[in-house]
Design goal:
By secondary structure, the protein is mostly helical. It has 12 helices and no strands. The chain has one domain. α5 runs antiparallel to α6, α5 packs across α12 and α11 runs antiparallel to α12. The chain is globular and about 50 Å long.
Length: 253
């Protein structure tokens, strides 16, 4: 249990910009770290839902509320996944040969496709929250919103652990068999969060489910197009998954 405790805070320190309350690294817990990725999603979801609740009861102007809610998940992750999103967009949309696409993916500079796609992503996320007719003082809206990042990260933990990594991926040296033994945690969290969203959100349970399904769709797209899995592809899929989760949350009555 102590290793799981350490693994959670190691994941916190790596994937969240919120100051980690227990910033200690234990190499023995590395194999459990990815399995704890959904728990960082729970932290993000809790902060996201709390912010929505406080802005709602404070009667915050709708455009300002939409801006803050659209920006918050990126701020909480230090733009980590947004960076991967732009890199993958540059690589895939270049339509070059595989070797060139992989080279573009590793390039630290952002290209025109990345800038355009990030702009469209942010406009879309802001527009969804601006058009949302949701009562964020009720659990029926707050719980599905909080669970969208959980579902996307449950799927991310499974995809990164199960799919073949790119040779240049930071996950290429991971002891995959050991990491796969710990996937029971993401699967359990996926089942529990789905049940919670159904109990409190009714049909809005479709929002976190859509986020999970879209993660796999876009992760597979990146995996096939770039011949392997890495953190950038996971960030690309996770960012789009949460956008589609929000879209379903807004559209389902």
């Amino acid at each position: 249990m102590k290793l799981w405790f350490k693994a959670f805070f190691m994941a916190w320190g790596m994937f969240l910009s919120i100051p980690c309350p227990y910033p200690k690294w234990d190499e023995r817990a590395r194999g459990r770290m990815l399995a704890c990725f959904p728990l960082t999603g729970l932290v993000i979801g809790a902060v996201w839902a709390l912010a929505a609740f406080l802005l709602q009861i404070a009667s915050c102007p709708k455009p300002l509320m939409a801006f803050l809610l659209a920006a918050l998940p990126f701020l909480l992750t230090g733009f980590l996944h947004l960076d991967g999103f732009s890199d993958v967009c540059d690589a895939i949309l270049s339509r070059r040969e595989l070797e060139e696409r992989q080279s573009i993916l590793k390039d630290p500079h952002i290209g025109a496709f990345g800038v355009i796609c990030i702009s469209l992503l942010l406009i879309a996320q802001f527009s969804l929250f601006l058009s949302a007719e949701l009562d964020f003082s009720s659990l029926s809206a707050l719980v599905p919103l909080a669970l969208v990042p959980v579902h996307s990260r449950c799927c991310a933990a499974c995809a990164v652990t199960l799919l073949r990594p790119m040779k240049t991926s930071q996950y290429a040296g991971m002891e995959r068999e050991k990491a796969q033994k710990h996937l029971a945690l993401p699967f359990c969290m996926l089942a529990l969060s789905t049940a919670a969203a159904l109990i409190f959100g009714g049909l809005r349970v479709l929002a976190p489910i859509a986020a999970g399904a879209c993660y796999w769709l876009f992760a597979w797209r990146g995996y096939k197009n770039l011949d392997g899995m890495n953190g950038d592809i996971s960030g690309f899929a996770l960012t789009l998954a949460e956008l589609f989760g929000i879209a379903v949350l807004v559209l389902v009555k």
